[in-house]
Amino acid sequence: MTNINRRSFRSVLALVCVGVFIVALMAGLIAPASAAPLAAKKTSRLAYHDEWRKLWEDHITWTRVVIMGVLDELPGTNTYVERLLQNYEDMEEALAPYYGDDAEVLGDLIQDHLVIAAELLTAANNGDTTAFEDARVRWYANAEDIAVQMNTMNPKFWPLEETQQMWVDHLDATLDEATTHLTGDFAGEVAAYDMVHDMALEMADLFSNGVMGQFKDRFTGSIP
Q1: Packing angle between helix 186-214 and helix 45-71, nearest 10 degrees?
Q2: How many CA atoms lie within 13 A of 120 on its CB side?
Q3: What is the pLDDT of residues 115-171, one digit of tens each?
Q4: For residue 153, which of 78, 90, 223, 215 has the smallest C-alpha distance?
Q5: For the whole model, what pTM was predicted?
Q6: Half-sphere exposure of 68 (CA within 13 A, CB side)
């Protein structure tokens, strides 16, 4: 009886060992296959370029809608502002895979850029010159903070002086767009928006080219 039990135990043990070996072997074969695509996955340069073009198109389009909403006191203005504020989150999401927490810092600064712009428009519409000037000063100071943060994240491809000027030009053109709308200079408003649009495309390319230049091994393909 004892011998039978021993033989049974050895048989069970042998089966268990074989089972463990098979499981280990299968895991060794399957794991690399599932992990390999994650390690090899890269982003298309063209897709990332186009993503930033859309992000900046959204930025200036919804800024324009908010300008008209606030200054013309349209009923949908709060909804327009909410959509505009989504833009900073979208930009942050596009930067997060490469910059981690720094992307959130920059995103928060861009959020401030949008919020202060809304304050500035409200003050202008109310004829409150004191509030308008306060918002204007904070708006340009915030642009400086954005430029500094970008340069900290990517010194080579987002040089400080160029980035500073880019943001100042963007604010100048956007302010001109709002001012011409408020004063009824609609031809001037159209010209100002055309300028804002041209600058936005340049800003989009600065962002995308900067990321792709800094993280070359994370991208594939080329831009026609």
Answers
A1: 150
A2: 25
A3: 999 999 999 999 999 999 999 999 999 999 999 999 999 999 999 999 999 999 999
A4: 215
A5: 0.81
A6: 11
